[in-house]
Design a protein that fits this description.
Elements: H1 3-15, H2 18-25, H3 29-43, E1 48-51, E2 54-57, H4 59-83, E3 91-97, H5 99-106, H6 110-116, E4 120-126, E5 140-143, E6 152-160, E7 162-167, H7 168-174, E8 187-190, H8 199-209, E9 215-218, H9 222-230, E10 235-239, E11 249-257, E12 261-268, H10 275-300
Parallel strand pairs: 3-4, 3-5, 8-9, 8-10
Antiparallel strand pairs: 1-2, 5-12, 6-12, 7-10, 7-11
Helix pairs in contact: 1-2, 1-3, 1-4, 2-3
């Protein structure tokens, strides 16, 4: 099979239209159509069903598209490795992490990274779904559990625990619980146990609900929980990494917390020599060392 024809086929399958593919490839529609016909003839099969709304892949077309998609990802990985052989840190780095950690801890600290590497462009992808690093859905991930894939380099960064927090204004107005049974008199702000979150967080919420808590506010990420707590709506379940940046929060019930949640940084083995990965990894590690030191200093005061 001819590489050019496969490249054109992939663009058509991705766009679902000869015209749109031609725009992407800077080719005329007729030129694209000729290449697709020639590919179909060489394979002795039909790759597309043609109808008024565009093109739909046949079963054979789906098989070929899966192959060309994998080839494209491999080529992207190779291109990334070639670019990363340069001494300077520049270009795009796709980082994925959970919504809460990304919005509340990572994003506010990126200014320091940009100061050091102004030509680095971060594509920060915040979602609870675990993206596939070997398939190049992202370059590097920070996740709240150890990655299971064998072909990843991983480093444990720190541990997190979910705890109870409230605003000072809320405590002044409603009083501070002194035991778990006192929670029944307060509104609990947390993620629904069925929402996407780490198991330790869901288990912690489940244990809290066993104390006859009837007033609830569910929010499907920790950023929303934090905003509700800071606006005096109740007592919230939040990760303890927030305390450095939000000293206005008051911890409730100091002996009540979730089990430990490990935080890992991971990236594909093939990007081991990446200058961008190394720069981001070192930046995160330095920020976590600083974060731990400030927390220790605060606890020792």
């Amino acid at each position: 099979m001819d590489w050019d024809k496969l490249r054109i086929f992939h663009a058509v399958a991705d766009a679902g239209s000869l015209t749109h593919a031609g725009d992407v490839l800077h080719l005329s529609q007729s030129a694209v159509s000729r290449q697709i016909r020639a590919l179909e003839e060489s394979l002795n099969t039909t790759l597309f069903h043609r109808h008024a709304r565009g093109l739909i892949l046949t079963e054979q077309g789906e098989l070929l598209f899966d192959a060309t998609a994998a080839m494209n990802k491999r080529l992207d990985a190779a291109a990334a490795r070639i670019r990363d052989s340069e001494e300077e840190v520049f270009g795009e780095l796709r980082v994925t992490t959970a919504i809460g950690f990304g919005t509340l801890w990572l994003a506010p600290r990126l200014a320091k990274l940009y100061e050091q590497y102004p030509d680095l462009n971060i594509d920060l992808m915040l979602e609870e779904r675990v993206l596939d690093l070997p398939m190049r859905e992202a370059d590097v991930a920070i996740r709240m559990k150890e990655p299971s894939q064998a072909d990843l380099i991983r480093k444990r960064l720190m541990s997190v625990r979910m705890r109870l927090y409230a605003s000072r204004k809320y405590i002044e107005a409603h009083g501070e619980p002194t035991s778990l049974s006192d929670l029944s008199a307060h509104r609990l702000i947390c993620q629904n146990v069925n929402s996407e979150q780490v198991g330790a967080g869901a288990n912690f919420v489940t244990s809290l609900l066993a104390n006859d808590v009837s007033k609830m506010l569910y929010v499907n990420n920790y950023y929303g929980v934090l905003q509700a707590v800071r606006n005096d709506l109740g007592i919230g379940v939040l990760p303890n990494y927030l305390m450095q940046d939000f000293p206005d929060l008051v911890r409730i019930l100091d002996d009540v917390e979730s089990s430990e949640v490990p935080v890992y940084l991971a990236y594909p083995e093939e990007l081991r020599q990446s200058k961008r990965i190394a720069a981001f990894r070192d930046f995160v590690q330095e920020e976590i060392i600083s974060h731990r030191k400030q927390l220790r200093d605060k606890e020792n005061r």
